[in-house]
Prior knowledge:
5-stranded mixed beta sheet, alpha/beta, 2 domains, Spore Coat Polysaccharide Biosynthesis Protein SpsA, Chain A
Amino acid sequence: MAADVSAVVVSHESSHEALECVASLRAAFRAEGIFGELVLVDCGSEAAEARQLATAGADVFLPLAENRGYSGGVNAGLARAASSRILVCNADVTFTAGALAPLLEAVDDRSVGAAAPLAHWDAAGRVRLPAGWAPGFFSDLAQLSAGRRPARDAARFASFARESLRLWQSGGFARHLTGAVLAVRREVFDRVGRFDERFPFEYEETEWEDRVRARGLGLLLVSRSRIRHLWGSSSAASADAPARRAESRRVYWRRRYGRLGRGILDRAARRMRVLNFQRLDQPSLPAQEGTWVAISPNSSLLPFAGVPLDRDFALPDEIVERLPKAPLYLRVFRASDGREVKTFTWEKS
């Protein structure tokens, strides 16, 4: 009997998160009556990590000899997965009952190339993570040039805020989906190809989704499907993550924008401004009717996690513990039009 879905979970030096992810998938399969196959891939972790993962109870465990990155891990898992429907996911994700069926229903639509759930950052499910950041030369430049053209920055933020609220509240088609969890029909991989392993860390799903959209297939956020993504947990486990991320960004910029475009973006990255906003002693804000708070490590606030300010807000301790010691930006904005009310900076001590 063929599995309803093959879940490919990719881990690197994140056995604790991977074990929780696999356990949550097993529980979701049982709760939803789904016959699921679990393929767990370890990308060149230390021997102790691999031994831990071998106890996870996956149907297939693939310990790779080297770290081929998330793209290589997904590709290795795809080669062993048996189902015609594939769920690819990071190790730092947990599923709840009811998350899987809406995703599988969504990808059965032949116009859909990939579907993603709505991801929460916290256990309480209040802090929503962005659906994704649609790449483009001018949008990438805007991230790096925040503060140089305030009016244009404000309009760009408001547009992203309105789109984010639409997706969080109702779901729908998006220009880009974050790759923490993607449901995909196998035939889509057959049509557009696997993940490109020239991206050592991040940007692999961005480039793959470019190919999906080029084939006329849509990217769908399914807001009825909810997961928790411990954003930053897996990436923080690897000391070489920043260098690998930078290399992936250079590869993507060069391939999409050419030498000139990449040069302009590289120069903008080197000249990024430090923006001065009112400082907060604690990452908390009072309730303010009709507003949300955007939370981002980027001074442009693009992209951002979001929380409605229908009641007093304090960034949960579970999130604060995982944050690096670097500025975090919080912007109160109007839900009606996405316009900024006030922006603050807080830095973990």
